[in-house]
Specification:
Elements (H helix, E strand, L loop, with lengths): L13 E4 L2 H4 L10 E4 L6 H14 L6 E5 L4 H9 L5 E10 L6 E2 L2 E2 L1 E8 L11 E4 L1 E2 L5 E2 L3 H11 L5 E4 L6 H9 L2 E6 L2 H12 L18
Parallel strand pairs: 1-12, 2-3, 2-11, 4-8, 11-12
Antiparallel strand pairs: 3-7, 4-7, 5-6, 9-10
Helix pairs in contact: 2-3, 4-5, 5-6
């Protein structure tokens, strides 16, 4: 796979500091294979803008995966549908602060929902994910664990394709893209957070070989 010829060089496999609404204007039409991002959940207008952006920059029949808060799921789905794509929800990723999931009387301690707008997965995936938080040695807690991110990236993208993360935060999506040999474009508005994300990606080592489903003989 190759980059779209009009993709800015400074976007290719980089975490760019700035406002996603401004930076995204330079992304060419139909140049992205997957959008996978985690906005601020109560900013519903951002989801409306995301739907419009996805309609423009995604290649035909490709997906937008976006996290949302449980309490905002109805408003979020309505906003995403304004982009003209069908929206379904994927069973949530369940998080625990320790090594094993912790229960209380209503279920798991923390969970978040992932919405799927348009497109089809290119491989089989398990939609329910159970995970722990990841921490750096200095105690910084990343908001997303690599395991569920990896599962979804493998299901909705292929080796060398371009993944767009408009709100990258701690840099989990670009870090896993590096591990899986996906290209990425990532935006982060806060300079300090962007620096941490770049450090994380720089310290992430890609594997020597990542088998794709067809290489595993799965026929997917």
């Amino acid at each position: 796979m190759t980059w779209h010829p009009d993709m800015p060089d400074e976007y290719k496999n980089q975490i760019v500091t700035g406002d996603a609404r401004v930076l995204a204007e330079r992304i060419p039409d139909e140049s992205v294979d997957l959008i996978f991002t985690d906005p601020v959940y109560d900013r519903i207008d951002d989801y409306r803008w995301l739907a419009e952006t996805a309609a423009r920059v995604l290649k035909p029949d490709r997906a937008c995966l976006v996290y949302c808060g449980i309490g905002y799921q109805e408003a979020t789905q309505k906003a995403l549908r304004q982009g003209g794509r069908p929206v379904t929800w994927i069973l949530p990723t369940v998080y625990s602060a320790g090594n094993t999931p912790r229960f209380h009387r209503l279920g798991f301690a923390k969970w978040t929902m992932l919405l799927w707008a348009g497109g089809e997965p290119v491989a089989h995936f398990c939609d329910a994910q159970i995970s722990t938080f990841e921490k750096r040695s200095n105690g910084h807690k990343w908001t997303k664990n690599t395991r569920p991110i990896s599962a979804y990236l493998k299901a909705f993208s292929r080796d060398g394709e371009a993944v767009l993360d408009l709100y990258t935060g701690g840099g989990t999506v670009p870090a896993v893209c590096k591990q899986l040999r996906r290209n990425y474009i990532a935006f982060e508005i806060d300079p300090a957070t962007a620096d941490l994300a770049r450090e994380r990606v720089a310290n992430t080592q890609p594997p020597l070989f990542v088998p794709e489903p067809e290489q595993l003989g799965l026929g997917l």
